[in-house]
Every structure is written in structure tokens, then in C-alpha cells.
Amino acid sequence: MSANNAGETDAAVAQAQVIALCNQKGGVGKTTSTVNLGAALAECGLRVLLVDLDPQGALSAALGVAHHDLDLTVYDLLTRTAPPIDDVLMKTGVHNLHLLPSNIDLSAAEIQLVNEVGREHSLARVLDPLRDRYDYILIDCQPSLSLLTVNALACADGVIVPMECEFFSLRGLALLNDTMEKVRERLNPKLELSGIVVTMYDSRLLHSRQVRDRVAESFGDLLFETVISRTVRFPDSTIAGEPLTQWDPKSRGAEQYRELAQEFLRRSGQPGSQMMMSTLN
Fold this sequence. Notes:
P-loop_NTPase, ParA family protein, 7 strands, DNA_Partitioning_ATPase, AAA_dom
């Protein structure tokens, strides 16, 4: 990971779509989905910014960043004395993929934002100037419906919900849907549910198939056809500090995230067939 200035890009022809990857339940593959979907989109020649909005800094760590040692993070951008955003932006080992990193300092942001005017739009004020630099901005939210998560929803165009195939996840999905409705009514009328992606899926298990069928019945076409299988390659690539699409590009998990990226692009009105995919050796 290089901390060199990552802000120099060609002029954009359109404003970036901001997508929050959100689920109040932890351990559902949210960070894994953020980094690998982002990397797969970048492979298509799209300019992608990943925003680590979790004080645990898992997204930053998954991209090889020694996040505990960082002097500047997303937290600093949310404060009144924010540094220039190009001082915080980082390049990654993936072409066209940049990062706004995070660490435990971000946990103090909620306390500081409580008394701020327009506190729910603090993240929007950070990201709005970046929209003309990127095609997509993906926000990795923390596993709770916190003020930080509300900030992500308040500035997002859409939400992708990664969910594990277990019945407890269905309740969490309903709660998140309720929160999105409130945010839509009070803060962000353009907010939409972009889709639900099933992660850690095992087709051999009846339970997994039943939960996926239940989600399909409730949400219809909002459920992505692409499913992400359970595999040890994901934690292995995280330890290596690279997206699986780069660390093991021919693996099943990497191919599934490329399929998810293509499906997402079609839903976004940007046909995957018109995008230039990287050639794998």
C-alpha cells in the first residue's frame, strides 16, 4: 500500500454513485464484499473509492494498511479542522482503486458529532467534493445502526446488504429496512436498496437454501442472483492484505465477485458487456 497522493485523476464525466454496504449484524462478509466488489469494479476500468467507516479498520487492514500507525484517517476529515482530503486518500495495490482509511480514532467521532449542526450530513460534506473523481464510492459501514452508519445512509444513493444465510439474519434485514425508510423520509429521499447479496453460502445445506428462498420471496428481484460461497480463501487473502480478485484471481470466490460486479453494473444501467475487463493470466 502506498500512501502517495491518490487524488490526481482525469476529469469525470459524471458524478459517482455512492453505495453503502451495510448490515447491523457482524460477521456477514460485509468488509469482504466491499473490498472484492470494489476491486472487481476497478478491474472493469472504473474509478472506485473505498471508504472505511468502521473504527475496527478491517477494510484498511484487508488492503494491507497498517491502520494503527496512520496519522490521518476518515476521522480527521469529519472534524472541524479537517486536513486536505488528498492528504488522507491512499492508493492501493489495485489500479483505479483508492482508499479513505480508518482506525480506532473513528470511535470518537460519534461523541464529537452529537453536538454538531447537521451531524447526519458530516460524511456527505467529506465525499461530495470527490464525486467527480470516481465512478463509484463504496462505504464499508460498521455492524451497528450508529450515527456513523446513518451518515453513510444519508449520503448514499443505494445500499447493498451482504447477508449470511441464517434465519437470525432475516430479522436484522427487516430492522435495516425500517432504518432505511426513516432515513429516506427524514434525510435522504433518493436512498434506495440496490440489492441483497447472499454470502458464505453453502448449497449443500437445506438451511441455507431455505433462507435464500425466504429472502427471494420477500424481496424478489432485489436479491442478487450471484451468491458468494463460503471459502477459506477470503480470510487468507485478508491476511495477505489483498483483495481475493488479485491474490487468487482464478479462485471461485474471485470469479463470484466479478459476476456480482457485472450484475451490479447491469442494475446500475451500465452494462458489463461494455466494460473492459482485465485479462487474467
